[in-house]
Amino acid sequence: MAVLSALKLVTATRVAVANPVAVRRAKLVAKLQDQLRLVEAYQVGRNYIATRLKTVTDMESGERKTIELPKKVRQWFWTNESGKVNLHIKYGQNVLHLNGKNATAIELLNMDELASVLKSLQTAVMDGELDTSCGSWSATWSSCTCANDAMIKKSPTLTRRAAEPIAKLSRINYFFNSCSNIMKTNRLVQHLHIQLSK
Questions:
Q1: Which of 27, 78, 115, 196 has a 20 to 30 A CA-CA distance from 43?
Q2: Quick one: which of 54, 20, 48 has its CA closest to 34?
Q3: Which residue from 44, 41, 118, 38 is spatially nearest to 72, judged by alpha carbons?
């Protein structure tokens, strides 16, 4: 009992689903970190090779093991005609709009400034600065969530997992779910037709 009395005990429940905003921020910070590593490797004249973990089954022994595989990291930065460095910020394949005037890139003097800006952007993302300044990003996510909620109300067969906040995937899931229901109905009609014809 002496050990438990020395510890701080609290009443807490584990949240099963992570906050989607926090997940998006963490993903964007990880991508910005990859860009920073690309810049640092470029500055010292090396190639940056990012890796990912994959679990595979060994064909000879049948054991499952985790191996590291290289993954491709696309540069978000380039040098323009005037010799300055431009930087996109992307979420997935989408370039984020950085202000109300649809600016899609940050112009910098050189690679040293790019490295410092990437570090400060990571802090800005975790502080939530891009949530409000990227109107298209937050608006897209909120409209996707509303569209998904509407689809769930229309079709109770859709699960919450199938209607995650990407509207395009949800529309595809909804379409395939509808097709599945139509096919089940057709099979039922055929079955009834066979039963009635006997």
A1: 27
A2: 48
A3: 38
pLDDT tens-digit profile of 56-114? 998 888 889 999 999 888 999 999 999 899 999 988 888 888 877 888 889 999 888 99
First to last CA, the chain: 76
| Same domain (yes/no): 81, 47 | yes
Closest CA to 21 of 117, 133, 138, 135: 138
> pTM surpassing 0.85?
no
Give the closest residue to 113 by CA, choosing from 84, 90, 89, 91: 84
* 90-95 contacts at long range (C-beta below 8 A, 24 or more positions apart): 90/31, 91/24, 91/27, 91/28, 91/31, 91/137, 94/137
- Whose tokens are 């699960």? That residue is 159
How far apart are the C-alpha atoms of 35 and 114, rounded to whole Å? 10
Instruction: For the sheet with 77-79, list strands across it.
Output: 77-79, 85-88, 105-108
Domain's final residue, options 117, 132, 147? 132
123-177 pLDDT, tens digit each: 988 888 887 554 344 455 444 444 444 544 555 444 444 544 445 555 555 545 5
Contact criterion met (CB below 8 Å) for 163 and 170: yes
Name the DSSP letter for residue 161: G
